[in-house]
């Protein structure tokens, strides 16, 4: 049996899957002040009367990190930066930054040594300023982390109580500012996330649940909960990822669809191209900073089933319906105090939840303010919400069409086309998707169990893993960006280090990914890894080629675990 739990802005959804099919579902109100309570309440509701030893897998989609960053509750971090030449430190907008001399070139060769007296002075200043944690990030540190490691050693000697984060261990990708942001946010959230994980483990232990526990990531993949502590910021935006994987699980294989997840507070949009969710080429933006966190190309808009409906006066004698962006609790028909789109949907008989008398009462009040009939008012509300979401989808397409993966997909399709389906996920989907699809000239699809599609997505998402390999044959070294270690090529099985082929480099990447997958406990998916990108460049000195640079990017892509039986 598999359990998936997704924390949403309004409700926390849970699903129990047995033999590839939905066995039971549950919905509880989300306690924003205590997400753990919501997760455990949903867990208990969906697993009631189920012997814990029958559970095989538990997956959580959580907004813990997202909320910490959005609410400004992260810990302060001293940023110890080694930017090297060519960068004006004043151009960075990162808070609490301390700059050091020293530099590596793009191949990881030292071109400017560290000033250890300066480092010790900086460490003393950081301690005196009251920082309890610091992130050490060197430009091109992922090609040679020796500067970061030496600064770490001095920190350990001079300020042993300081919690340290090293940039090359958080992200091995190029783009110094994004690596700074990723390291900063990892350091700022790690301790609180560790506390959250500890509480989850304790709660599961109390329930005698021994099944492997995973956390859903922004790229739609799962990560063993203990490993997720090393990469806390990768768990952000897991809600949109859950809805995307849920749509993938609940629709036919290989289809191209817009995913519209309509919750109580927000609506999340995503795109599936020929059965593969579209990944954003740029990292996620968090707290105003672009990061290296992989994520689906998604957008959230502040409109949902519980958004407040108001009547706004325009010119004399002219009134207009406005919706959101705020939410004042549940819909009126669900015990709330304000008219919402959910009330309009209930009044028109488009959804089953809610009290019909209270829905009529809410629409009657709004219709009176608007000066129209109740049926006309409810229809206007539904049309307005549908148009707002359809407009957001059209706007999103301008961004999606700039994504490299989308452009490759268009080339393979040999035509410029829009998705044929609009897949509705979430509690508000049933009453709105038909109208949204009509406005987008697409087919409406509301799969079975769409109301808990996010939880299904969490339950059946398989692990993902990336590996970026860089080989420098002139220096006779290679490095894996995610590992932060420089390794001699003499340790490999290459017969001729001067004549390594791209095929051989890709084979090494595949072998290293298998080792990394084994370390993460997900070896069974390693053979499904695919090459995302591979390049080779000649190193020329004078008139001669003296070496070659290889860059190979591999991934275990997002997808579904084999235990799930996809519906056709």
TrEMBL record:
Residues 3-157 form the Hydantoinase/oxoprolinase N-terminal domain. GO terms for molecular function: 5-oxoprolinase (ATP-hydrolyzing) activity; N-methylhydantoinase (ATP-hydrolyzing) activity. It is an enzyme of class 3 (hydrolase). Its EC number is 3.5.2.14. InterPro entries: ATPase_NBD, Hydant_A_N, Hydantoinase_A, Oxoprolinase-like. This is N-methylhydantoinase (ATP-hydrolyzing). The lineage of its organism: Archaea, Methanobacteriati, Methanobacteriota, Stenosarchaea group, Methanomicrobia. Keywords: Hydrolase. GO terms for biological process: glutathione metabolic process. It comes from Methanosarcina vacuolata Z-761. PANTHER family: 5-OXOPROLINASE, 5-OXOPROLINASE RELATED. Residues 179-464 form the Hydantoinase A/oxoprolinase domain. GO terms for cellular component: cytosol.
